[in-house]
């Protein structure tokens, strides 16, 4: 009904009164009507309270339960990187945020200890990131939670060092952390904790299909689901002399952990436009993960 009203208002119906359509010698036929059905809501499974149907507003407030597979973190660092205006997010507010973060993690069943190191760095520099990550790694930390001043653009460097040193990081803007502390924005905090649990190797919930037979089919032991995406560079945006230095990106994902809907993945670089080579690398990577898990 709403579609018909909009079509008539814009004269995009079979009355052929749209002047620009007429000048292009185009006509519109009657709308085709097809039977349809409303898909059922997903059924969400957490570790506690069994299966849950989300409300119709699709707001995930039901996520207050224990995660299906809560992550474990024995050693980690909490780091605040402040800029020239660090008075916007004081050190005591940073400590309060970390306390709230820990409480929320444990409420969801995560086994996470207090951080082995707190760092509140005033007038931080981008070079500080590498030394901090290496310091945490030497202390056997497996995760670093950064809170970064809004005016500092350190995220790309942070992710580069994370990949280089193979240690997990979670970056958060200071304004977001301040909102959590001052305004008690628990939904925002839940979103951060949800992401953290996944990063640490946990699984927040499982989704069940409408038909039980389909659900059993998807969750049967040994059923491998593999995803692959190859992003080639756009040569129109690259000068001729630089085209040999631009690589394609091979993204991959597979359910190779214990739970059938627990997917992990990553990416690799390959010579541009060489899909055969990309696929070869992909097969080797998936095989190595199967052996690992």
Automatic annotation (TrEMBL):
Transmembrane segments: 277-292
Limits of the Piwi domain: 153-275
Organism this protein belongs to: Brugia pahangi
SUPFAM superfamilies hit by this protein: Ribonuclease H-like
Assigned keywords, A-Z: Membrane, Transmembrane, Transmembrane helix
Entry-linked Gene3D superfamilies: 3.40.50.2300
Name of the molecule in the record: Piwi domain-containing protein
GO MF assignments: nucleic acid binding
Listed Pfam families: Piwi
Lineage: superkingdom: Eukaryota
């Amino acid at each position: 009904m709403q579609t018909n009203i909009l079509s008539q208002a814009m004269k995009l119906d079979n009355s052929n009164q749209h002047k620009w359509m007429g000048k292009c010698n185009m006509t519109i036929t009657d709308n085709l009507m097809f039977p349809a059905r409303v898909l059922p809501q997903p059924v969400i499974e957490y570790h506690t309270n069994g299966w849950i149907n989300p409300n119709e507003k699709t707001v995930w407030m039901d996520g207050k339960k224990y995660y299906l597979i809560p992550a474990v973190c024995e050693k980690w660092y909490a780091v605040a990187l402040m800029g020239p205006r660090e008075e916007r997010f004081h050190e005591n507010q940073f400590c309060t945020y970390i306390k709230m973060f820990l409480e929320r993690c444990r409420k969801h069943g995560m086994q996470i200890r207090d951080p082995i190191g707190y760092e509140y760095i005033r007038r931080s520099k981008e070079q500080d990131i590498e030394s901090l990550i290496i310091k945490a790694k030497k202390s056997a930390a497996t995760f670093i939670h950064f809170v970064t001043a809004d005016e500092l653009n350190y995220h790309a460097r942070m992710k580069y060092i994370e990949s280089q040193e193979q240690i997990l990081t979670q970056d958060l803007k200071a304004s977001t952390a301040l909102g959590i502390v001052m305004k008690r924005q628990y939904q925002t905090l839940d979103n951060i904790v949800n992401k953290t649990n996944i990063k640490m190797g946990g699984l927040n919930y499982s989704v069940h299909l409408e038909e039980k037979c389909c659900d059993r089919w998807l969750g049967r032991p040994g059923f491998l689901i593999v995803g692959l995406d190859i992003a080639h560079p756009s040569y129109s945006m690259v000068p001729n002399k630089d085209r040999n230095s631009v690589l394609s990106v091979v993204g991959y994902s597979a359910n190779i952990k214990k739970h059938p809907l627990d997917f992990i993945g990553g990416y690799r670089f390959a010579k541009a436009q060489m899909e055969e080579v990309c696929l070869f690398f992909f097969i080797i990577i998936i095989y190595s993960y199967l052996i690992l898990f």
